[in-house]
């Protein structure tokens, strides 16, 4: 690892030249720590910067690769995976990241771009893991960020969930996938269809088989994907049951003010597809009311011109799950808000007790039931505890994070769910000047709140009759009620 | 197995020790909560040390496993080694053991060894050289993926000694037939460059060559290499500019980003500023958003009187616009910055909707996008004003997002929306996130200074905040109020008094200092309070912050000058305190002030002006956005995000005063003429992406031509075209074989292209056709077809007149065609003759019955052909077929067809239905005495992958009549049967077509040299051969050619030797080469060799060709 890590610290220039043994990095680090703390660990790190790399590229800037290295860091600040696409960048570069992490109160506030003397650290935070890319020179930051997100998506696609444990368990697959995704720091294969052909995702069955036969997940046949007719679809797809499912999911983003009037509300929708069709099907999906869609972004498979001229989605789908379309419903349409929240939260100056009362009720639901209702609210710091009784569902108040969450479940219009009780405040502190905002989650099945309707789905190019299914759902996106 | 279990034991041991180490670490952490990050890292690093001993032993194990003969053991070892690498542990000592396995047959082991090699080769250079020969061998592998991966690994081994080998490999790979290999070559360029910058010149040559590549696969990678190696060689781009613009939609997303950024820089050096006009015409107005394209065009027309946008500039803007719909945020941002930096101000607005859309994305994407919007919104408010509500803050947003949103809202504030905004701000001020609340107060301050109407409202609001319970809020308000009062100090005595009272409660130094400064500055307005404030602060002087101390001194000095009677003693007391202060700043200041205000002999003239110095009118501070001058960095770049120059940032140049010569982008004639023949070996791989969008390209092209018509380039291209036409001709006639047909085919080819185009324009509804995509149209050679095209040509003339530079080939050929017409007329019968020779008993039936509308040529092919040089790539051209088999097959017997009979034969007219479809001519005959109506194809039962293009239904067939229709079937390079139903009005009959393997081919011409080269790459598994007996009468050259070509649709390769005959073709579906060699030996035997990747087809073909030559 850190061979030849020259550290120009004040008075402690240590050069490690290819010492034998495995725990070299550790040795280097230990030596650093064990030395006289003259420079001080923090000062030493902060001032003298990262160590010069052993086999440094000729000049910084010349040896630019888009993404030089990737470090995966967990919540407690351990680097649990590293991958280098060019010469090795010492782990110590992450110290700058840790510094920023410490400075930020929450993981969310760690800046995505951190400059260091010789590198730039671009990170994304997902699934409680920081994916930190090290880059050396000018590059569009979104390029790197978008790529990192794609990496996470790929892991998720491969392993179902993306967590530290899963990544550690599948380190070889992860490594192989990363190897294929970037060449010299430049994205090579990012379509999951292609990747899955190169490296088979692990399944329980395959894991068992692999342990017995001792084979890995590397595809034993070379994929034709890179060169297939359709870059995002692998060739030779075969299913006994041919199915195509489309989920139209709309999310309502809204801010509701104290009095219950809407400050802003918009609908963002996506169409997620799960297509398992044999061969090379060519699908067209048309809407009853395509004019509703104001701003759209497509999976690369969608033929843009066809949409422009006819408002029809025409595409050869990738195999498996993918997001076909995301859209925004034009702002002219008034957004129907399906639920309302009645709230009465008050703190009194004199006593250390406050009142808390919320009721959730359906508003414009087009006759459908509102399910999966979940109310969360971040209480002010001065709140010590809450004594509440819900009319239905369960509620939890975490006295450490001060987060109140109430899992309501279904809303019964005859008997509206409510949560009542008292709030005890820290004695001696004055009442908080702002009431907490209430975040709402809910689901309405079989309804697209914008009124979007799929007209028909047709398949060309293949002979069989596929099973087609379309599902609608409305969800709360970022739905906030100010109190 | 046993070995495995011992391994397992070891692993458990290791993990246990790690666990205990971790426990120890956690323990430390809880004991010492102040542990620094550094120490934590050390603690974490502690565990590998502790189990170092075990590593040594396990490494021995690994070595043994790698030496083992069993693949499974090796694999297991490699997996563990990769695990070590991933954790950042050193595995370099295993190098010798690992590198031995580089030639492993097992692909899984091989891959992992590659991973290892890339990681450690640099450190073990000598040993790494052992692996090089393996890669060199793999570079010659017939499989493109193996070639590519060999190049990839070879170039990733950062060992300087192999630079020449790498250089050679890159050069070779850059002219590889497979675009995937070429893509990898482009990647390798950067790697080699970073390893050895001295190779720059040579690498630039390779880049230049690859830039001309037509494949969308290559484009992104080579531009990347260009940006890395020679971003200043803008001259390399000229010739490829139009091609890149046209390809852009089809390039993969990452490549798009790189290309767009590069083109932005390019355009800024090559085109005139479109902004100067804007300044005259109008500022950006909201209506532009909703303006339709027509209106836009009209407007452009208007502008043209003053400024004409270079058509190439327009081309770039138009071709990038659809990418705003990309799912990739980086692409959208790239287009947005391109519009920002290149588009006329009135058009830049189209990007805002897409940018706002990105705000739904992840936090990191939001962060970058918001930063860019912030910069944009300062200069052009109108762009984002309609989306104001999208920037409203949610309490769940991270602080950095909140502040950025606030920034943008402040930038967008104007008279109309300020009241809504202020109401929104009021909510924010109360936020639990105090950092954000403070930022809001600053924002209110900025709104107040920028919009004079609301200054008073804001000020009152801020004063209310002074009674807020939170200190940070109050402090921030004080600071902002101070700034506001400074801008209009006239009548704010009351506020100052109020603030003076606050002094007792506020502890935040900045706020205290601000209040003191205010009182000092306006001490004449509050004559009673000021001295009292000084008295109070003098008492607390020693306990104040430095910042406050300075202001106390300041206040003292000002009061001394205005009201010395009351404050003289107080001031002197303060000055004395300051004199002995710990901070030298304070001591300095004290000395300075004392000299100025207290007159003595030394101070001289200055003290006379002390009042003027201290109480001068001070300019009000400007409350500005921190994003104010970020726009000198190109938007969307890292430098912009950091607001400082990042390494390797390339400055965006200013618009040139005078536009450089636009003709440099015209692609010269010789090149395109050459490409004409050079292309067909390659385009196979380009099609996939092309087919998806080419229809759009086409339409765009058309509009391009309309908008750019009348500009200089059009006429220029016309001129060029004539040249091209003549070169075409000459090249045709100079070709050694088949002179007449060759030149003929050239011109016909273009005619055919144009026809497709016309057809395509008129009929773009056919879904199926679109799905099949647009294919490269090859020359057609049946006589009837020739007639058809030439007649069609006249009708499309008018259309093609308006085509511009992109469809140059079409236009050019039109020109040449016109000249040639008389000559062609003469030739036509000749060709007919030639066919009649072969078609002894089969009468050529006119095909136009079933209008072959499906054959469509992407006009971009014309552009495809530009910018691809022939210099080193081999010439493999699809030719017209030499012979048409006479044999017809029965499709439906008249007995089973109730009087309807059908025959089919393979017409070998390539490309009618797209180049993957084997054209089949079906002749239906009515043997009944009644009319048969509505003959069409019913239900199809095709094997997976197979597709079929039906013939148009035949409405009515008279008794005794027969009619021929053409259909296309894509057999997917297999001899599987295509079953379908032939239906009439009343009946349907199941029929099937099974293709002879010879019909699944498409003849190509190539030179003997290329043939040998290709053959060299298709050896081993890919070669099948057999010895056959040749009947004596068959041994002459002509007979052999005739027979072989009749049996299979092969192209003849000119041969230098009399006894060797070569034929070449490629498979219809996948485009794999099929090389056939017939080598005559003594005693009437011959060696028949077939080289192809498609070994199955190869062996079937071999079997079929065998009897052809041996029979009499």
From TrEMBL, chain A:
One cellular component (GO) term of this entry: glutamatergic synapse
Location(s), subcellular: Golgi apparatus; Cytoplasmic vesicle membrane
Signal peptide location: none
Membrane topology of this protein: Peripheral membrane protein
Swiss-Prot/TrEMBL GO biological process terms: anterograde synaptic vesicle transport; intracellular protein transport; synaptic vesicle endocytosis
Domain of life: Eukaryota
Gene3D superfamilies: 3.30.450.60, Mu homology domain, subdomain B
Keyword Membrane: yes
Domain spans labelled MHD: 241-482
UniProt entry keywords in alphabetical sequence: Cytoplasmic vesicle, Golgi apparatus, Membrane, Protein transport, Transport
InterPro entries: Adaptor_comp_med_subunit, AP2_Mu_C_sf, AP_mu_sigma_su, Clathrin_mu, Clathrin_mu_CS, Longin-like_dom_sf, MHD
Family, similarity comment: Belongs to the adaptor complexes medium subunit family.
The protein's name: AP-3 complex subunit mu-2
Organism: Taeniopygia guttata
């Amino acid at each position: 690892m850190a061979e030849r890590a020259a550290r120009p610290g004040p008075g402690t220039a240590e050069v490690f030249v290819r010492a034998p043994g495995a725990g070299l990095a550790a040795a280097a680090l230990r030596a650093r720590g064990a030395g006289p703390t003259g420079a001080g660990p923090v000062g030493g790190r902060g001032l003298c910067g990262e160590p010069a790399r052993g086999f440094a590229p000729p000049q910084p800037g010349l040896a630019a690769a888009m993404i030089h290295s990737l470090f995966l860091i967990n919540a407690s600040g351990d680097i649990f995976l590293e991958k280098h696409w060019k010469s090795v960048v010492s782990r110590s570069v992450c110290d700058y990241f840790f510094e920023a992490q410490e400075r930020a109160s929450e993981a969310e506030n760690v800046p995505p771009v951190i400059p260091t003397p010789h590198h730039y650290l671009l990170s994304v935070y997902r699934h409680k893991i920081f994916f930190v890319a090290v880059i050396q020179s000018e590059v569009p930051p979104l390029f790197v960020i978008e790529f990192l997100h794609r990496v996470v998506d790929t892991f998720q696609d491969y392993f179902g969930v993306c967590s530290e444990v899963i990544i550690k368990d599948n380190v070889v697959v992860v490594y192989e996938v990363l190897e294929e995704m970037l060449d010299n720091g430049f994205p090579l294969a990012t379509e999951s269809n292609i990747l899955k052909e190169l490296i088979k995702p692990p399944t329980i069955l395959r894991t068992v088989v692999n342990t017995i036969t001792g084979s890995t997940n590397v595809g034993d046949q070379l994929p034709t994907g890179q060169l297939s007719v359709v870059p995002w679809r692998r060739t030779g797809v075969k299913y006994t049951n041919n199915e195509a499912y489309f989920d139209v999911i709309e999310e309502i983003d809204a801010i509701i003010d104290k009095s219950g009037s809407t400050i802003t509300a918009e609908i963002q929708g996506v169409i997620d597809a799960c297509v398992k069709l044999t061969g090379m099907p060519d699908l067209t999906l048309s809407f009853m009311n395509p004019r509703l869609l104001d701003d759209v972004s497509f999976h690369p498979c969608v033929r843009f011109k066809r949409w422009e001229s006819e408002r029809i989605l025409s595409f050869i789908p990738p195999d498996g799950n993918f997001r076909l379309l995301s859209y925004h419903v034009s702002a002219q349409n008034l957004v129907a808000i399906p639920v309302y929240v009645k709230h009465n939260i008050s703190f009194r100056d004199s006593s250390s007790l406050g009142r808390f009362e919320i009721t959730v009720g359906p508003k414009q639901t087009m006759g459908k039931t509102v399910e999966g209702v979940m109310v969360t609210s971040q209480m002010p710091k001065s709140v010590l505890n809450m004594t509440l009784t819900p009319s239905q569902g369960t509620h939890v108040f975490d006295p450490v994070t001060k987060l109140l969450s109430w899992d309501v479940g279904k809303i019964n219009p005859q008997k509206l769910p409510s949560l009542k009780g008292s709030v005890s405040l820290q004695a001696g502190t004055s009442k908080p000047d702002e009431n907490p905002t209430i975040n709402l989650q809910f689901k309405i099945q079989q309804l697209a709140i914008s009124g979007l309707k799929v007209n028909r789905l047709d398949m060309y190019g293949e002979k069989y009759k596929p099973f087609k299914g379309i599902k609608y759902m409305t969800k709360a996106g970022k739905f906030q009620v100010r109190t | 197995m046993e070995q495995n279990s011992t391994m397992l034991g070891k692993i458990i041991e290791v993990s246990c020790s790690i666990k205990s180490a971790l426990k120890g670490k956690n323990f430390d952490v809880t004991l010492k909560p102040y542990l620094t990050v550094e120490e934590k890292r050390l603690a974490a690093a502690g565990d590998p040390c502790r189990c170092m001993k075990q590593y040594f032993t396990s490494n021995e194990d690994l070595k043994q496993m790698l030496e083992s003969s069993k693949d499974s053991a090796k694999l297991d070892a490699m997996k563990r080694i990769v695990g070590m690498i991933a954790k950042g542990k050193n595995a370099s000592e295993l190098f010798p053991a690992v590198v031995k396995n580089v030639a492993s047959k097992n692909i899984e082991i091989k891959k992992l060894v590659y991973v290892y090699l890339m990681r450690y080769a640099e450190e073990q250079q000598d040993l790494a050289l052992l692996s090089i020969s393996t890669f060199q061998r793999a570079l010659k592998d017939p499989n493109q993926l193996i070639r590519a991966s060999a190049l990839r690994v070879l170039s990733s081994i950062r060992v300087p000694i192999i630079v020449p080998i790498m250089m050679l490999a890159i050069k070779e790979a850059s002219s590889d037939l497979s675009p995937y290999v070429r893509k990898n070559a482009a990647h390798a360029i950067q790697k080699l460059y970073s390893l050895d910058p001295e190779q720059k010149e040579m690498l630039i040559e390779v880049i230049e060559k690859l830039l001309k590549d037509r494949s969308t696969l290559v484009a992104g990678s080579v531009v990347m290499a260009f940006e890395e190696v020679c971003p200043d060689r803008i001259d390399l781009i000229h010739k490829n500019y139009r091609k890149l613009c046209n390809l852009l939609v089809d390039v993969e997303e990452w490549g798009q980003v790189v290309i767009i950024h590069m083109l932005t820089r390019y355009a800024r050096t090559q085109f005139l500023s479109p902004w100067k006009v804007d300044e005259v015409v109008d500022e950006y107005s909201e209506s532009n958003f909703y303006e339709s394209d027509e209106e836009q065009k009209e407007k452009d027309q208007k502008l043209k009187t003053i400024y004409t946008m270079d058509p190439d500039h327009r081309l770039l803007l138009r071709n990038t616009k659809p990418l705003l719909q990309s799912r990739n945020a980086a692409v959208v941002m790239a287009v947005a910055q391109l519009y920002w930096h290149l588009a006329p101000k009135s058009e830049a607005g189209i990007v805002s909707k897409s940018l706002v859309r990105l705000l739904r994305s992840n936090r990191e994407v939001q962060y970058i996008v918001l930063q860019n919007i912030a910069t944009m919104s300062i200069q052009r408010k109108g762009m984002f004003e309609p989306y104001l509500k999208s920037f409203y803050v949610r309490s769940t947003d991270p602080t950095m997002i909140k502040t950025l949103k606030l920034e943008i809202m402040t930038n967008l504030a104007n008279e109309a929306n300020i009241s809504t905004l202020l109401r929104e701000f009021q909510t924010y001020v109360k936020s639990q996130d105090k950092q954000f609340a403070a930022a809001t107060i600053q924002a209110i301050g900025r709104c107040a200074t920028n919009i004079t109407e609301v200054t008073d409202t804001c000020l009152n609001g801020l004063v209310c905040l002074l009674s807020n319970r939170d200190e940070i809020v109050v402090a921030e308000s004080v600071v902002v109020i101070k700034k506001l009062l400074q801008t209009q100090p006239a009548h704010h005595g009351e506020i100052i008094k109020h603030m003076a009272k606050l002094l007792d409660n506020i502890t935040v130094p900045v706020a205290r200092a601000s209040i003191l400064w205010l009182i000092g500055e306006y001490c004449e307005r509050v004559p009673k309070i000021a001295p009292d404030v000084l008295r109070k602060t003098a008492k607390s002087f020693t306990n104040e912050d430095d910042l406050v101390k300075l202001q106390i001194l300041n206040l003292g000095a000002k009061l001394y000058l205005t009201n010395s009677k009351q404050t003289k003693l107080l001031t002197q007391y303060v000055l004395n305190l300051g004199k002995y202060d710990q901070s030298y700043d304070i001591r300095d200041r004290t000395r300075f002030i004392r000299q100025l205000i207290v007159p003595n002999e030394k101070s001289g003239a200055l003290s006379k002006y002390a009042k003027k110095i201290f109480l001068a009118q001070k300019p009000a501070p400007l409350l500005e956005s921190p994003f104010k001058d970020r726009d000198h960095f190109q938007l969307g770049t890292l430098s912009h995000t950091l607001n400082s120059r990042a390494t390797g940032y390339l400055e965006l140049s200013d618009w040139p005063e005078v536009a450089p010569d636009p003709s440099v982008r015209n692609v010269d004639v010789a090149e395109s003429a050459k490409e004409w023949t050079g292309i067909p070996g390659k385009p196979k791989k380009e099609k996939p992406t092309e087919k998806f969008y080419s229809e759009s390209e086409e339409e765009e092209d058309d509009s391009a031509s309309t908008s750019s018509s009348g500009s200089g380039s059009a006429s220029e291209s016309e001129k060029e075209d004539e040249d091209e036409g003549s070169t075409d001709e000459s090249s045709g006639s100079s070709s050694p074989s088949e002179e007449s047909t060759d030149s003929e085919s050239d011109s016909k080819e273009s005619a055919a292209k144009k026809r497709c185009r016309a057809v395509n324009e008129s009929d773009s509804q056919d879904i199926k056709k679109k799905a099949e995509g647009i294919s490269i149209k090859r020359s057609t050679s049946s006589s009837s077809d020739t007639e058809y095209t030439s007649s069609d040509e006249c009708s499309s003339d008018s259309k093609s007149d308006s085509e511009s530079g992109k469809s140059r080939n079409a236009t050019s050929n039109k020109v040449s065609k016109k000249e040639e017409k008389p000559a062609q007329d003469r030739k036509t019968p000749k060709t007919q003759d030639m066919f009649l020779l072969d078609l002894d008993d089969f009468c050529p039936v006119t095909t136009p019955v079933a209008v072959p509308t499906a054959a469509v040529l992407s006009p971009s092919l014309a552009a495809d052909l530009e910018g691809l040089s022939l210099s080193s790539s081999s010439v493999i051209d699809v030719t017209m077929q030499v012979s048409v088999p006479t044999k017809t097959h029965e499709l439906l017997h008249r007995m089973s067809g109730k009087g309807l009979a059908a025959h089919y034969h393979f017409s070998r007219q390539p490309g009618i239905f797209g180049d993957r479809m084997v054209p089949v001519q079906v002749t239906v005959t009515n043997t009944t005495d009644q009319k048969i109506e509505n003959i069409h194809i019913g239900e199809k039962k095709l094997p997976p992958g197979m597709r079929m293009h039906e013939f148009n239904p035949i409405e009515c067939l008279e008794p005794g009549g027969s009619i021929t229709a053409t259909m296309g079937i894509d057999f997917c390079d297999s001899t599987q049967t295509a079953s379908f139903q032939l239906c009439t009005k009343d009946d349907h009959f199941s029929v099937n077509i099974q293709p002879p393997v010879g019909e699944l081919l498409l003849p190509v011409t190539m030179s003997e040299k290329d043939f040998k080269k290709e053959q060299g790459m298709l050896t081993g598994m890919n070669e099948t051969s057999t010895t056959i007996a040749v009947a004596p009468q068959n041994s002459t050259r002509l007979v052999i050619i005739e027979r072989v070509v009749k049996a299979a649709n092969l192209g003849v390769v000119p041969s230098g030797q009399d006894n060797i005959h070569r034929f070449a073709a490629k498979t219809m579906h996948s485009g794999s080469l099929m090389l056939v060699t017939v080598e005559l030996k003594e005693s009437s035997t011959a060696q028949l060799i077939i080289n192809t990747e498609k070994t199955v087809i190869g062996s079937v073909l071999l079997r079929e060709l065998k009897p052809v030559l041996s029979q009499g």
